[in-house]
Amino acid sequence: MAIAKPKTPEPFSDQLVRFTFDDLPIRGQWVRLEAVLTEANAHHDYPQPIKTLLAEQLAAVALFADTLKMNGSVALQSRGGERLVRSLAECREQENLRAIAHLREHSEDQAANLGTGESDLKDWLAGGQLALTLIPELQGPQTYQGIIELLHPGLEANIEHYFQQSEQLPTRLFFSHNRATTTGLLLQRLPDDDLGHDIATQAWEDAWETIQVLIATLTLEELAELPPEQFLRQFFSEFPCRLYPTRSLRYQCTCTRAKTDNTLRTFAQEELEEIIAERGAIDVNCEFCGARYTYDPVDVAALEQDRTTGSNTVH
Q1: Is the pLDDT of residue 24 over 70?
Q2: Comparing 84-98, 126-140, 174-188, 211-225, which segment has the lowest mean pLDDT?
Q3: E-state strands within 80-204
Q4: Which terminal Cβ of the chain has fewer Cβ within 10 Å, N or C?
Q5: Which contacts (CB < 8 Å, 24+ apart) does range 189-193 have?
Q6: Over 60: is that where the pLDDT of 228 sits?
Q7: What's the rounded Cα separation, in Å, for the pair 185 and 18?
Q8: How far apart are CA 174 and CA 215, in angstroms?
Q9: 175 near 160, Cβ under 8 Å?
Q10: What is the pLDDT of residue 115?
Q11: CA gyration radius for the chain?
């Protein structure tokens, strides 16, 4: 009997690399996800188009989070769509990712049309919204949310338009899928240095235009397969780049027993006891990671005791 060999991870999978162009106000990020995607899909039977969309959302938030000088989270979320009720991809502390999607009932068959030319992202999210949210580690008035207009079939073009119009940052964004991986590339033209003179400004703009011409020759197969250093050397040989330390990424949920306790305390004790009487236990399953938290009669009684005493003891 043949024994299957363990799958070899793709080179640079679940890693992000930041790079800048020497003496130019242009930055870039490259990311490749593999194990993160496996975890995101492990507990859901998503249609392939939804897997692709979530993969691109996860790659996008990883890229965006790396550009921020703050701790906290970056979320790219849709809601209220005609077919896709809700999708969420989140990156916390610039390295922890999670994602979820909810389809409207009977949308699974329609999902096969996403991205085939018969239906695009605008159709999929018809009547809904796509938003980019930045949440600092210490939540407060600094929380920011921007609405991304759905003007184009693909996620990349809609995000590029958002950065151009809302942030005044010319941006190019690319996604490529290869077997079990998704690779993302972000390029941004930063604001000119206040000390820059007209000649320098024109030189920077010319460089940005040239870089866009060069990147236009990139095929999706090359983006999906080349490691970052080889990719930069191959496409931007005339523009010296500086690569920063590689950042490892992972799938990590935020669910805990304590959070589940607090959720159950929002229900009346009588409701919890009725469920216990009917089922023998209360099972709370996390949709993000599949974790199950089970509460027996003793646990439910302890929740009521904590409620009356004001304690948040975890049992």
Answers
A1: yes
A2: 126-140
A3: 84-92, 96-103, 129-136, 144-148, 171-178, 181-189
A4: N
A5: 189/25, 189/26, 190/25, 190/26, 190/27, 191/25, 192/25, 193/25
A6: yes
A7: 10
A8: 10
A9: no
A10: 45
A11: 23
User: Backbone phi, then psi, for 111, in 5-degree steps?
Assistant: -60, -30
List beta partners, residue 240: none
Q: Does the pTM of the predicted model rise above 0.70? A: yes
- DSSP per-residue string spanning 199-255: HHHHHHHHHHHHHHHHHTT--HHHHHHS-HHHHHHHH-TTS-EEEPPPEE-EE----
Residues in the chain: 315
pLDDT tens column, 246-299: 999 999 998 899 999 998 988 999 999 999 999 999 999 888 888 899 999 999
Q: Which amino acid is at 180?
A: A
Please, are residues 183 and 226 in contact by the beta-carbon 8 Å criterion?
no
Instruction: Give whole-number Cα distances, 21 to 18, 42, 186, 229, 241, in Å.
Output: 11, 38, 13, 13, 5
Q: Is 174 exposed, middle or buried, given 0-12, 13-18 or 19+ CB atoms closer than 10 A? A: middle
**Amino acid, single-letter form, for residue 49:** P
Are 282 and 295 in contact, with CB atoms under 8 Å apart? Answer: yes
What the block records as the tokens of 139 is 């939540």
pLDDT at 191 over 80: yes
Instruction: Measure the CA–CA gap between 87 and 85, rounded to whole angstroms.
Output: 7
What distance in Å separates the CA atoms of residue 186 and residue 173, rounded to the nearest whole number?
Answer: 5
pLDDT of the residue at 68: 84
Q: If you ran DSSP here, which 8-state letter would residue 273 be given?
A: H
Contact 272, 307 (CB under 8 A): no
β-pairing, 250-251 with 96-103? parallel
Angle at 270 between CA 265 and CA 272, to 5 degrees: 55
Q: Is 27 helix (H, G, I), strand (E, B) or coil?
A: strand
Predicted pLDDT at 1: 31
**60 has a pLDDT exceeding 90:** yes
Q: What is the enclosing helix (H) or strand (E) of 78?
A: strand 72-79
